[in-house]
């Protein structure tokens, strides 16, 4: 009998495994891919403060670049720069980043079974039967970190994150982008109304370029974007995925069921940027701590309250995104100008938080 089973070996699942194992729980992770971190679909831009919160070194082997702000190109073609004047975020290789968290989880005592696809999870009295490609296991608790789609969760709970809020995305690795690697680049395009395009520099030559949209023919839109912005860049590889822009599931309310979704499966993603490593990881850590406390016969309420507050922040960010989505292009351009003004840059460098975005804007601190 496993005390806590984790479905999925992405950051949220691995952080949950690490924290529960550190607290003394018996943990087993089921990862469908043979290699942790594959396939790599994420831009890998993670705030330095977020790395610290996740207890991961900013100078790990996964580090590719460090950026100090963002350059934003408006729909009318003008550039504005939001410069913090100091390092703000790391660009990481997600393959190496995820592998490092896996090493931490295994050092803490968690067992990771690679190449094991979970086909179903069933109730078995007070516990669960986990049916995998490698055999059948029993567990007291299940943390569902299967990622986007969340087929197991929808089958088990009959519900999931907002299906209409997933947006297809294509990401490329490009060579010879010709941009200053100290900044991340955001492009607001009228023909990409659902999201923005981006270029995240890996170094002076290589970068991660992506566009997202619900509009059919995304590859044609990608070709148009490349012709407009990077006509000389060379494509090295391509991957397709989805990003989430909706409200999160409050996983703390599912705690009594002992089947708890975290990460992308639960929509624990910043709706404004599609990034979920830090916020999803923090929530997963709190959920795992609450499970470990319950296994020891202690009250999990403090950890659950902390997780609920972070989920509340994601709800505020999702609301912020919907408000931004209703703004016309001229007004959005004005907001970009204000955000990148001298006062805006000063505020961003002193008070800005890439992860707790709504709290930064509205001055809500915990």
CATH superfamily of the domain at 2-40 and 94-163 and 249-318: FAD/NAD(P)-binding domain
Indicate the structural class. alpha/beta
CA-based shape? globular
- Please give the radius of gyration in angstroms: 20 Å
Strand segment count: 17
Broad CATH class of the domain at 2-40 and 94-163 and 249-318: Alpha Beta
At the fold tier of CATH, the topology name of the domain at 2-40 and 94-163 and 249-318 is: FAD/NAD(P)-binding domain
Helix content: 25-40%
Summarize the biggest pleated sheet: 7 strands, mixed
Arithmetic mean pLDDT:
92
Beta-strand proportion: 25-35%
Low-confidence stretches: none
- Which CATH architecture of the domain at 2-40 and 94-163 and 249-318? 3-Layer(bba) Sandwich
Q: How far apart, in Å, are the first and last alpha carbons? A: 38 Å
Number of helices: 10
Oligomer: single chain
Query: What is the N-to-C succession of helices and strands?
Result: EHEEHEEEEHEEEEHEEEEHEEHHHHH
Short summary of the structure?
This protein is 34% helix and 28% strand.
Question: Care to describe what's here?
Answer:
By secondary structure, the chain is of the alpha/beta class. It has a domain at about 1-40 and about 95-165 and about 250-320: FAD/NAD(P)-binding domain (3-Layer(bba) Sandwich), CATH 3.50.50. It contains 10 helices and 17 strands. It has helices spanning about 10-20, 50-55, 95-110, 150-155, 220-230, 275-295, 300-325, 330-340, 340-350, 355-360; strands at about 1-5, 25-30, 45, 65, 70-75, 80-85, 90, 110-115, 120-125, 125-130, 135-145, 165-175, 185, 195-200, 205-210, 235-245, 260. The strands form 3 sheets. Strands 1, 2, 8, 9, 10, 11 and 17 form a 7-stranded mixed β-sheet that branches. Strands 6-5-13-14-15-12-16 form a 7-stranded mixed β-sheet, with helices on both faces. A 3-stranded antiparallel β-sheet has the order 3-7-4. Helix 1 (about 10-20) packs parallel to helix 3 (about 95-110) and helix 6 (about 275-295) packs antiparallel against helix 7. The longest helix is centred in the C-terminal third of the chain and has 25 residues, at about 300-325. The model has no long low-confidence stretch (mean pLDDT about 90).
